[in-house]
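P.,

For your records, the input lines for the assembly:
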Amino acid sequence: MSVRKKSADPKGVLTGVHYLDGDYAIAEGALAAGCRFFAGYPITPSTETAERFAERIPLVGGVFIQMEDEIASIAALIGASWAGVKSMTVTSGPGFSLMMENIGLACMMEVPIVIANVQRGGPSTGLPTLTGQGDMMQVKWGSHGDYEIIALSPDSPQECFDLTIKAFNLSEMYRVPVFIMTDECVGHMHEKVVIPPAEEIEIIERKWYEGPKDKYLPYQPDVDLVPFMVKAGDGYRFHTTGLTHDQRGYPVINAEAQDWCVRHICDKIRLNADKIIEYKEDETDNAEIVVVSYGITSRVAWKAIQDARKAGIKVGSLRLITVWPFPEKRIEELAGKIKAFVVPEINLGQIKREVERAAKGKAPVYPVSHCGGWVHNPDDILKVIKEAAK
Amino acid sequence: MRPEDRLEKKHPMEEFLRMDRMPHIWCSGCGIGIVVTSFIEALQKSEINPDKVCVVSGIGCTGRVAGYLRLDSFHTTHGRPIPFATGLKLANPDLKVVVFSGDGDIVGIGGNHFIHAARRNMDLVVICVNNFNYAMTGGQVAATSPIGANLSTAPYGNFEYPFNLPYLAEACGATYVARWTCLHIRRLTKSIQEALQKRGFSFIEVITPCVTLYARRNRLGDGLNLLRYYYENSEIRHGADTRTLDIGYQGKIIVGKFVDIEKPTFLDCMNNHLRKVLGNKYQPWGVKS
Amino acid sequence: MNEIRFSGFGGQGIIRQGLILGKALSLYDNKFATMTQSFGPEARGSACSSQVVVSDERVLYPYVTKPEILVAMSQEAYEKYEPELREGGTLIIDSDLVRLKPSKRKIKIYSIPSTRFAEEIGNRIYANLVMLGFFAAVTKIVSPEAIKKALPGLVPSRYLDMNIKAFDRGFNYGLEVLEKEAQSKVEKEPKAEKKTAKAKNEGMEK
Ligand SMILES: Cc1ncc(C[n+]2csc(CCOP(=O)(O)OP(=O)(O)O)c2C)c(N)n1
Ligand code: SF4
Ligand SMILES: [Mg+2]
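Structure tokens returned:
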């Protein structure tokens, strides 16, 4: 594969040990990853990322622009990315909803961009200042049509930093929008964040096309299914569109072209899923119960898991780092061996349904759900673990 | 046919057209093609390296322009070519970015982006094809439809006040504002040329016939009849007060160049301001040393 | 594990207290410290608070539920947060700004005129650092060196010295208070010999 690895540009890397909240850590992760364009619109609880970027970027070299709304913000990202500059935005529920149409555009045009969603309670204006994990399905399905994206879920400010870099790397590697699905609690929580020296940060560069100009096809899949990219202004005179298109990027309005185009943008993620998916397992080998969790909820769940083990229950943990694509194979494998899954999350069972789907009826799935506004009390999770173990 | 003969027959604008996409989708008698021709001519006459020119369109009949121009061309979503172009331009300030789209796209659904890009004096050329309706979707009422005109979603005639686009653009801060009809090809070309040379937010409105929908529904005849209407009812008045530029149904059309001023662009302001405040710590963006 | 809440009204630097403490502990005292604050409508009113959860291991549940230590720098904050203070916990107040209500709870109380001390130093805005110094002395949760290392970046560099001065003022006062406490304990020693009686009385102590 022609993906190029290098170390981070030291200009953007604030090497050292810091005490940051998750929002700030996302901004630092972006700068370390080489993001030099940020367009956004203020919304609680994500605004601190924009503020931090606005403060830091003039010292690093790049652009921060506060757009007129979230629709403009994501449109600007796609434009900036075509100009060859890594770009990102950050938002929360209402702004995320406004971005949906152009998320589809980014998928269709196969443009690398990174979007952080610091989730709050929804729907609508909901709970601006309080936490939620209710956008986990929206990020997967919110734009119309079939497409695939990648979504990561950090559980701490440190992971906000680490996973933002990972998000940029995945985005550049697969020419796809990548989402950092964090939440108000992590976004506003201050903790120690270690930023390593630039040379220890691995950056994956876009797959730039280097062949003859007249042979370039913007949507010709490479061996890994990901097409090579060029940037505006380099003389390729390429065309790209949100319409169904062929490998030249020209619109073709028929069922055949649709089949090729849509399968292509889905397959490049689906068939590479094993390489993309990351999760952390703990004591799942002999487990009777496996707790599947992500983001802030996995921290709280960890407390419940420890308490349950003390009470003699064999509990394993599967913490999702990538929520999408979903590790369905692993879930199915586990389902064949265990008694039940427990899925705590700050919504009414979004990922629980996904676990259920992947488990294919081989193990029951117990939700521990609430609508948002607070993180779980570990005892509530413990109670369900005990019930599932009965 | 021998290759040599083909060379002679080469379309004079082939360098700038995606010939492999012809024929285009526009109706015969539609004015959009005329504006495209005018744009290419302006580009040919200008000194600009076409490799550095990007065209961004939204969705609509006019939105298809990006697909036919052999330039780096972006066919985006409805209403969003201006913010898309903003990102493109800011990320690579060496590019000359042109937004080419319809009236519905630019000042209807995209109106908010339009006023803000003008306010910021974003360095873009915006060419707005005004055919008084939403053509692509079948001739619905638009923010530019004259009072009294009949549209598919105003079947008893339009009663909403339309925008006066040059006035809107000037009020929002555009540094170059002109209006032409697609009868004024030479002058339109010159305007596009001027806008391409200029730094800042340039806005050119082009009144264009939609023969198939707007004209047919209002029984205004074919393309020729509409050009005759432009010929008889348009008046060149350079520097006219933009407040006086409303267009009534089949009424007078004042055309000309109304605004041509110099003002620092968004990037100029950003670089100047931050350099002033931050001194040597500031890392300028898009400034050639 | 320790749960700590700083509280007062907006403008007193309450959030800053949490930030400085959290940073000091996790960067320079080798602890895990998670700092959170109240946002939004809750934070708009006059009562303002920041919370720090401190532990030798990774903090899992990030919020304070029943703090062991409550620092109150306004009457409203004291009244709002005192009921959640854990039995046997510690209440630290600004003695000029908080009037204690009669209570039968078994809690330890320390008080300092932090705002007055800050004014003596030059500006009441240093009251948060005076209080933090006092807090460090009486609770011994954080080392004064760690706090001083944590200050750069969290207070304007021009006023770093003043902030350190304010911190020291509070810290030294805290040491004095502890000393007096120890002395009075020694004086009371004979009485304390009757252990059962003491235990009975503990609930009434303060
Ligand atoms: C979000 C969204 N809403 C509606 C549409 C449908 N639509 C496509 S083109 C168009 C109107 C285009 O009008 P205009 O910009 O004036 O272009 P014209 O076709 O007249 O050149 C509409 C409403 C769309 N594509 N996207
Ligand atoms: S419908 Fe109207 S605007 Fe569209 S191509 Fe035909 S004439 Fe032109
Ligand atoms: Mg139109």
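Two observations worth noting. Chain A has two domains: 4-205, 279-389. The mean pLDDT of chain A is 97.

Regards
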